[in-house]
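Regression check, zinc ion case 59:
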Amino acid sequence: MGKINAEWHRAHVMAKNPTEAQRAEWHYEHALHCGCRAVTPSIAELLKANGYKVPRPAA
Ligand SMILES: [Zn+2]
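Current build output:
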């Protein structure tokens, strides 16, 4: 598990009732900019289902 990017989290609060597309976008950006959470298999599936490449988590 990497370090939390607190600044990124402050700027990217997840919507209250996010659509699947919003969640996919959030997790995609999150994995690129923050390493506080691993990209789990279910998140990887969500990203692929919404047309994203699965990024390597930030170190
Ligand atoms: Zn994070």
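Comparison notes: The CA atoms of residues 16 and 22 lie 11 Å apart. The first helix runs from residue 6 to 11. No diff flagged against the previous build.
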